[in-house]
Amino acid sequence: MRRLRRTKIVATLGPASSERAMIGRLFQAGADVFRINMSHTSHDKMRELIAAIRSIEKEYERPIGILVDLQGPKLRLGQFGGGFAMVKKGDTFTLDSDTAMGDVTRVHLPHPEILQATQPGQTLLLDDGKVRLTALESTGKRLVTRVEVGGKLSDRKGVSLPETVLPFSALAPKDRSDLEAALDAGIDWIALSFIQRPEDVAEAKKIARGRAAVMSKIEKPQAVTRLDEIMDISDSLMVARGDLGVELPLEKVPGIQKQITRAGRRAGKPVIVATQMLESMITSPVPTRAEVSDVATAIFEGADAIMLSAESAAGQYPVEAVATMDRIAQEIESDPTYRTIIQGQRAEPEATGADAIAAATRQIAETLDLSAIICWTSSGATGLRVARERPEPPIVAISPNIATGRKLSLVWGVHCVVAEDAHDQDDMVERACRIAFKDGFAKAGRRVIIVAGVPLGTPGATNMVRIAFVGSDLGEQA
To answer: Is the same domain home to 52 and 121?
Structure first.
């Protein structure tokens, strides 16, 4: 199951893809990581999906990552008498703590923190931005606004506040329950929704205690403003373009996508680009030309992974959507322009031994036209640092830890192999050559480069580089 591309594919599971047979077909078509959206999934269903994925993983003997996406705090209006109200531009409209049914002049807002935190002049977006309000006056229990863009408001529509920092955690009670259940089930990645500040990430990491890596979804302007701080504490980032495009002008989203992707690469942390990538394939067996260009842009930019949401979760053509992404990635990565862009964005190595060795490994491998870069990695750190270099030869990460292999399944260019740790350096070299030969990365007579930490099995101690010859008997070394 060697992939013929470096960019990874994340497929969301849902009603159209919840059976084991379909999950297996998605994996065969190219899915490297499966996403479980807790906005629509019970704990029992989550455990059922995880069991199916682990069964497929065992069948194919290749680590598969599982990403559980937490819902995050959902801010919603109360209810209207008759179910809806039409508000017009220029009208005064009040949000308050009164639980009575709403009308064209007011509605209940069951979130006192919004009433208390919103200041005059700040914007409120209702129903995914279809209705826009400007705050005029706030008493803490009553928020008077002016309607800037009118429209129909109905029961329980969402509320967004792009200019207001809200004084609550990104982990609602439901999220805490979902997080504990997911950790107990042994998932690999946790995605946090609607984070505003690094403290939101720290809270989740404190609960996770290393049992899963934590991914920050960047979908609020407040998170964009504090991107560097959030990046420092996160294990990975997701460009969540759906809500980002609600809370920010749409024309700003492409630039922010590039900013986040490049920042993630500089930091050596995986970045997923998500939302509406092949949206038309929910109902069509082929994408639009614009969607193909959108996916290509993320790949040209060097994103670690591209994600399918409703296309694979609820669409009519989930397998075709994954296969389409796979074909686009293979084609873009074989384009001469791709290597030029990837090389042009390469960041200088940080002043650490691990970074210096990763940069040297990439340069040696490309200069000598070596067949593969093979990383022995316990924690995954070596694989991450080598992937940050975006080398031309393929990367094979060998780890004794299945959890490390699953985590690295999200990382650009890394082919993960789970194997018993090497006994000594000779064993390490011989087995690296065997694995490279067996998985089709190196032919007999070719050379590979091996990077590891000595003593073996020491997490984070990348300090050794060795060039090895794949002999005809797979035992010769140079």
So the answer is: no
